[in-house]
Amino acid sequence: LAHDTALNVTATDAAGNTSQPARATVDGQAPGAPTVKPTNGSLISGTAEAGSLVTVRDGTGNLVGSATAGSNGEYAVTPARSLQDGVKISVVATDAAGNASQPATATVDNDPPARPTVDPTNGSLVTGKAEAGSVVTITDDAGKLIGSTTATTGGAYSFKPTTPPAHGTVLHVAATDAAGNSSPEARTTVNAVSPS
């Protein structure tokens, strides 16, 4: 039957009594392919047709896990074991009528960015280099967030604090990639004293 065909279903017993009709509409249309966010293998998430069953498999077809997409279409699958770097995954959404989407694919990235660099600073501007597209986070010794910014495609980053950190403050700078992997920290100490 064609997609969207209306069906009326009745039941008739041996005595010839017929029930009121139940109505249904044929759903022969597969969901759109889901999306899958960059992942380090510890959590696989994205969006799919609301209410659909989202199934994740690795490159050899082994089941990684499944979840039902919420009313907003978001889903999250936590593998029983984190997947290794470089593993290819496929994600398929299946609706209540059994129609399966085309797969979305992603490659697990759990390789952290290299340690960023941080230039000498007087606290008014923090600059350096980090993995392109990574989020660079700057904190002080107490772990208080000073600010964050995104490295350009060339890897440069620049952040101007609203309140410059005081002379002698140790800045901790780390880069986090799209898959959630964090680099080792780089450190520098604010030098806001002019040469005599």
Proportion in helices: under 10%
DSSP strand (E) fraction?
A: 35-45%
The largest β sheet comes out as: 4 strands, antiparallel
Spatial strand sequence of the major β-sheet: 5-4-7-8
Task: State mean pLDDT (0 to 100 scale).
Answer: 91
What overall geometry do the principal axes of the alpha carbons give?
Answer: elongated
- Round the Cα radius of gyration to an integer and report it: 26 Å
The rounded distance between the terminal residues' Cα atoms is 87 Å
Q: Which H/E pattern describes the elements?
A: EEEEEEEEEEEEEEE
Low-confidence stretches: none
Q: Please report the total strand number as a whole number.
A: 15
The total of helices stands at: 0
Instruction: Indicate the structural class.
Output: mainly beta
